[in-house]
Design a protein that fits this description.
Elements lengths: L5 H8 L2 E2 L15 E2 L10 E3 L12 H6 L4 E4 L14 E4 L3 H16 L3 E5 L4 H12 L5 E3 L9 H6 L8 E5 L7 H9 L3 E4 L13 H8 L11 E5 L3 H8 L4 E6 L6 E10 L2 E8 L2 E7 L4 H16 L4 H7 L11 E7 L3 E8 L5 H14 L5 E6 L8 H13 L5 E5 L4 H9 L7 E4 L2 H11 L5 E5 L7 H9 L4
Parallel strand pairs: 2-3, 3-4, 4-5, 6-8, 6-9, 7-8, 9-10, 10-11, 11-12, 16-20, 17-18, 17-20, 18-19
Antiparallel strand pairs: 1-5, 12-13, 13-14, 15-16
Length: 474
């Protein structure tokens, strides 16, 4: 059986048993590992992580009551070990480090190709597109949900099984050094950098510094490793120019190993384009709009082709690609009063470059009906936050919305920028919360309108769509 038994896991983590010796259980295969006691199922191994807000040691007893077979702790939990005589308790110096070392060892033993995806925008969609293409020819593990940090990457690796031919993991960051640490845990063989944009500027002095932090994923690529990069992003292209291994480029604007060109938007969820690769040209069609998603697709094709997926399988799989919820797919929404609108819900997160791209998509797809833009505050932009928000407002004004709603404490400059660009005062409104915006929009929206929802995760812009839909039939 593939995996680590309890004795091997204890050795990797530098753990010693507490309460009772491993004994005959030492050769038992380590079960599923969880760090949230609410997710524990009978037989799981609970790792008590000491976080900024919560300490997992406070929930060891709850995990035991839910049926956990084992617990990994850095101090003796407040419970009677005798009451759980059939359970395994392992004590380590640092539970976070133990989790990471455990996952790194499992990845080493698994030993097959792993794709690491990072970048300022489109990580999750690129990861999803890449996995979906590869799944047409291989057994693939991909990061679940948004498991892309110091806890999520190890938990993703611990899902590896013998049956998996490939893995596709997402690596996120908001500080320098984070990508380096994650890459050393998961050891990618193929690294994708989607782009570099002004995000997390609260923690970086410049966008160039962000690019260097993203480039940490390249430091420990093996000699045969491959760097798949966005040739249209000059900072990412510069990283490629100094990389000594194999590179594969993707682009929408210039010659590249994988190029998307001749893009035509036929309808709100119908985009046609030509895909150019070393195999030649292919006519393709997808059920979404937006250049940002076509970059994600091009990156996925570049990775899949590099990993040996055939042209036929790639071409067959492309039409099935679709963005995940809250990441930019246009859909119909029925509201109260039999009002039917189209909504582009891109509320998962936001930054200035992402807003620019999604506004381009709105300009392409919303030919009929009024355009209504609900733009939430973009967080972590640092001292230039107001200036970035004004720029977004000027971009929004260019597509002449019937209403521009700015949401969140730092979003007022969006309206200032829009007015500077000529949008009438009567077409701009400010709301402190997404709930306030939803309440107003529920009365303002008419049948045939097109609504864009975009904002940083912390602003909760996804609640606008949920509240509008909840009011259906009221």
């Amino acid at each position: 059986m593939f995996g680590l038994d309890f004795r091997q896991a204890a050795d990797v983590m530098g753990a010693r048993s507490w309460g009772r010796d491993l004994g005959r259980q030492a050769n038992r295969l380590l079960p599923r590992v969880v760090i949230d006691s609410r997710q524990v199922k009978p037989g799981d191994c609970f790792v008590a992580i000491e976080g900024d807000r919560l300490d997992g040691h406070d929930f060891v007893k709850a995990a035991m009551e839910r049926g956990a077979a084992a617990a990994v702790c850095s101090r003796t939990p407040n419970l009677d070990a005798g009451a759980y005589g059939d359970r395994i308790f392992l004590r380590v110096a640092d539970t976070t480090l133990a989790l990471q070392e455990l996952s790194a060892e499992l990845r080493r033993r698994w030993g097959r190709n792993l794709v690491g995806v990072t970048g300022s925008m489109g990580k999750t969609t690129t990861r999803t597109f890449t996995a979906r293409l590869l799944e047409s020819g291989y057994q693939v593990l991909q990061s679940p949900a948004n498991f892309n940090n110091a806890f999520g990457v190890p938990l993703s690796l611990l899902l590896l099984e013998e049956r998996h031919d490939l893995a596709v993991l997402e690596l996120g960051m908001n500080h320098a050094g984070e990508i380096r640490r994650l890459a050393r845990i998961c050891r990618p063989d193929l690294a994708i950098i989607t782009n570099v944009a002004p995000v997390h500027l609260e923690f970086f002095s410049s966008v160039d510094e962000i690019a260097r932090a993203k480039g940490e994923i390249l430091e420990d690529l093996p000699p045969a490793g491959v760097f798949v990069y966005n040739a249209d992003d000059h900072r990412v292209a510069e990283l490629a120019s100094t990389f000594h291994g194999r590179t594969v480029s993707f682009s929408l604007e210039r010659e590249a190993d994988v190029q998307v060109t001749d893009v035509r938007v036929v309808d709100s969820n119908d985009t046609r384009f030509i895909l150019r690769t070393g195999w030649g040209e292919s006519s393709c069609r997808v059920a979404f709009v937006g250049r940002h998603h076509l970059y994600n697709l091009a990156a996925a094709v570049a990775a899949a082709r590099t990993l040996g997926l055939s042209r036929e399988r790639i071409e067959e799989a492309i039409p099935s690609l679709s963005p995940l919820p809250m990441r930019g797919k246009i859909r119909g929404l029925e509201m109260s009063g039999s009002r039917r609108i189209r909504i582009l819900d891109d509320s998962y997160n936001s930054n200035p470059q992402a807003v620019r791209m999604v506004l381009e998509a709105v300009g392409q797809s919303a030919a009929a009906g009024r355009r209504i833009l609900a733009l939430g505050e973009m967080l972590e932009l640092g001292p230039e936050s107001a200036a970035w928000h004004r720029r977004v407002g000027r971009m929004a004004a260019r597509i002449e919305p019937q209403l521009l709603a700015a949401v969140g404490a730092g979003a007022r400059p969006v309206l200032e920028g829009a007015r500077e660009a000529g949008l009438a005062d009567g077409r701009t409104l400010y709301f402190g919360t997404s709930e306030e915006a939803a309440e107003y929009l529920s009365g303002f929206i008419c049948s045939g309108d097109f609504l864009l929802i975009k904002g940083s995760r912390g602003v909760g812009m996804e609640r606008i769509a949920a509240l509008l839909e909840k009011g259906k039939g009221s």
